[in-house]
Amino acid sequence: MARHAPLLLFCAALAVPAPRAFAERAESLARASSAERIGDRGLVQRLLADPDRGVRRRAALAAGRLADPGLAPPLIRLLSDVEPAVRAAAAWALGRSRAPESLEPLVAALGDPSVETRARAAEALGAFEAGSASAALATHLESILPPGPRVTLRDDPGQADPWQETRAVLLALGEQRDGAAIARVLLPPSGPRIDWWPAVWVAGRTGDPGLRPVLQAAAASSSPESRAFAAEALGTHAGSLALQRKLLADADPAVVTAALRGLARLGSREAAQAAAVMIRAERPGHRAEALRALAAGPPLPELAARVLPALADPDPAARAAAHLALAHLDPDQYPLALSSLDPDPDRRVRAAIAQAILRIGGPLAEARLPEFAADPDPGVRGAARAAAANAQQPPSERPRPLADHLAATAPYQIGLSGQIYSPRLILDTTAGRIEVLLDPVSAPLAVSDVATRARSGAWSGQEIASVDTDRLVLLEAPETPLPAEPGPGTVGRGDLIATPEGLAIALSPRPELARAATVLGSVTVGLAVAERLRPPARVLAAAVWDGR
To answer: Which residues of the chain does CATH 2.40.100.10 include?
Structure first.
């Protein structure tokens, strides 16, 4: 999980370069970003040998995003670079390329003196063919774990992250999906060894029945995150219903949400009946998750009567889930129930109704879908057409010009004082203030786009798009997606990320998004505010502070 970077970064050089050197560096950094966008591998390869360490690191990020095995030789050479940050970026990039000749150098990089490099090397090894690096990762993990038959680890919310390497190696081992290697570390003869959410995620990711004791032990952990990961993962293990029923009464709301998702994954009649009990839960998110679990289980008409009152639930997310659940449980009864309802004022509910009608099809779809296809909300129109919102307007593939890349990084270049400020995104919402420390070095174009939207006032008065209970707050789903700039590390709690769905704040660790999402920064103030955001909460004002 990424840690908050310092607000004020200092130039590492003892002497401040001349303004001309700054201009050259800015242009080289922009050329690396531009080469990434247009796929200019020759330019990226030349920049990998640039005398400026910042340019070499940026070029390594570009090489990783291009994922070209042909760039492996210069990246392997960078594993011996004098600059740790360059070595770390090169290791991550080699994992993206998956070039066979880089496997052995990456295993050797697990012994690098830099913790960051070792973590990125482990991350890279996890991306290779299943089982190809699991033995090396397991051996390394055993060498860095604290001693003892039972190890309890917890994420440190401070700036220092003592478990960065351990977390990276564990998650990489999970990506390898080698049950024997995972059991060797997590489940020795003495019993489950590690009490920590990454270990639980790894055990659940494989679906190996032999690792079920790890999940059972985690279900009783003192860590809510460990219990939550266990609750959902148990959904892939038959015979776990009794334990999941117990987790439905957990004191932590996120654990209850995860248990409901676990019931959805079980997909049995008994699991659906257990989820139905939560339709009238006090917490709106739990009601919505219970209804989603019913929609994911077997069609059980006898449960339809319990869903009917939820069509009038005060929470729009629960109403939307109720429509999908009822259409799934009893498609014959749903048209009658729908005919007795007035048009719903919430766009998310109307979109769910369109999806439900589309699934049923037949005369109902012929009669009702045209009204949703003409809905003023693009998301509803998209659902009516069985496609994502604005599917008729695919994003442009035109490369952004060099000037855009220069503009993206120019405000954050080191000045004559030798100092550079990391910009902050400040969101004043109806629930309170949220401050995000942005990372324009790793994701210059996405950060630039977000900053431009904030400064233009585009967010003022905008309603929060949606909430994936206890997981993500989707701030907005822009018509033109933000530039995709995936980077090293996993998606941690409090990270501001860009996904194909839009711009979101992660409310819990999301390791499965590590290679798909762009991390733009981390929330430093107001994470509790983000957890309270629910539509129709709004962004009242947005601003970007860059130290000037």
So the answer is: 416-545
